[in-house]
Structure formats: structure tokens, C-alpha cells
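To fix ideas, we give here one paired sequence and structure record:
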Amino acid sequence: MARIPDVINTFTYNRYVVADENFVLKIHLRLPTTKQRTRKCDVNINFVPYVFVSHFFFFNQRTSTMRSLLLLLALTTPGHVVVSGLIPLIDGGKTMPKLYDGWFNDQIAKQANAAISKAVAAGKKNMEVQFPPVPNVDEVKFGTPLNQKFGMSLVSKDLKIKGGYKPGSQVSRNLLAYSNIFWAKKIAGSLKGGAIGGKPVGVLTAEAVDFEQIGNLGDLTRSGKIFTEKARKEGRNGEAMICINPGGEETWAKLVSAHGQPNCPLVVLNNAYSTSYDLGNKKGFEEVYYLKRISKGWVYRAFPGPWEAYLEKPDGTVELLQTYKTKPALREVSELVRETSFKRYAVFNDRWMGGRL
């Protein structure tokens, strides 16, 4: 395959490949260059829905022909155009995010957006997105250097919170709540239809968030509290909705009734606890992006891929132990990971004692 910079900057190659192997459409074009000459160009387009035009602009603007072509593809295809050579940069890769870089380098956001886009394309309406909103969730009350760095360098700056992240500030005392707004902002683009999509996206939360302190909600066009009369009345036709930590899944049907719109996506984001005591939910919400810490490891799934069980090793890296075509039971996965850890490392695989926070 031709190198992408050569194709874009010099146009000396006449083929580049765009895309996911499952959704490829080949188009043959003749592009005008100079002095009435034309050059044939083969283009493959990935029809993962919703266009993110901003992704095209980091391709440096060396040739107006290539720039125009990329913009034309963005405007005329119902898909998210992705260059295969740059897939790790755009969709975050196929394996679970790296600990703990994935929270800081947009890997989680890219993976979640890619999974949501594919789920919407497949006709999914009610979805669950679940992952730790900060690097060290269990330690959020007393704080860790990673959590503090996340709150200061990303959450408060990206949301433009008044006063920023300071000891005793609202964002520092309610870091999980504001981090979830940060993540809702990050995934809103995949629900609205990309940079040129027209679907409004709202966010509602059950957590302690003062939206008046937030200066930048990005693609989120409405905010409020779950199950309030005000939030119900402000609902709009054609609106996608992100509902943060709404509570036990027995209330999710009421959530859709109160805040969902016909034929529009509704995402339950980072529910704090499960009343089914298992992986995901039992109410028919597709677990489109799911990352859960279990004893000695992790469970990961990105739609439409399989469920995966990972062992977290003493050096902080992870190893894939098992894949599952359908959602496994939490007990089954936990036993596999815990027993593998004990056989290899006995009691010497502890993230607190090993300084992996």
C-alpha cells in the first residue's frame, strides 16, 4: 500500500486505501491536475456512519486537488472516511486502551466513538457505554496523582470550568461527575452525525454538576438533570440523548420514555452500579463500549467485536486471555483471570503494592 503522506503531498501514487475491511466501497475517479491533464485515482471508502470532517484537515494542505477530494468524500458519503494506515490514530485500535495512557491521549474517546458509530449504523437505539471515568475510580475519594492530573490537565481545561481545578473546588470534590460530562462531550459527535451532522445531542445527569460553571460543552446542545420536569419539557424531536449514571437498570425503560425520542439513539453512560451483579445489563441496551475492572484484570468489548478477558500483569501491561462471541458471565471471567494471576504470580500481582496507580 502506498504511504499516505506520499499520496497526499505529491500525488505520485495513484492508490490509497480508506477503511474498515467489513465496509469497503471502491470508487474510481479521474482527477484534474494541470494543463488539461487528468490522473486516475482509486479510492476506497469506509461506510462506518457519520462523517467527522475535522479528521481530514490534519492531512496537510499541500494540494488543492487532494483537499477538495477529501472534502467531497466527506460531504457526499454517509460514512466515516478512515485511512487504513491511520486507523490506530482514528479509532483507537482494536484492543483495550493502554493503562493509563488511554485516558489522556484520546484513545478511549476514539474507541468509544468508533463503536457508537458502528452501533448506530447497525440500527441500535438504546446503548450502554461503560468505562472508568477517571484512571483510578476506587481511589477517587482520597485522590491519586493520576486522577489529579486528569482533572487538572483535561477535565477542567476542556470544559473551561470557572476557577479551574483547585483543592476544595467543585470539580475536585466531584471529579467523577465532571469527568462524565467531559466524556459525554467527547462522544457527542458520533451521536449527532459528525462535524456536519444535524442531530442535536443533549446530556442529562443524576450527579452533582453545576452546568453554569462549565464554559464549553462542545456538541452538547442541552444539559440538565435526569427525570426532572424541566428536562422532560425541553426534549426536542430528533434529539439524541446521553444519560449519565441514571441508576439501577430497572429504571432504564422509564428513562427512555421520559427523555428518549423516536428512532433516536439514547446512551446510558457510566452507570455507577449494577443491580444485575453481572456484566452489562439485562434490559436490552447494547453494550457498545465496555471496559470494566475485575480482580486482577479487565473485561473489554467494542461493538461489534467480541467480549475479551484481560489479565493485568505486575508490570502494568495487560494480556488477552480469552475472547467470547457472546457476553460471558461475570463469575466465569473473574475466575479465569484470578486463577491465571495466582498460578503465575501467586500473591505478587497487586496494583497497590506494585505502585500501579
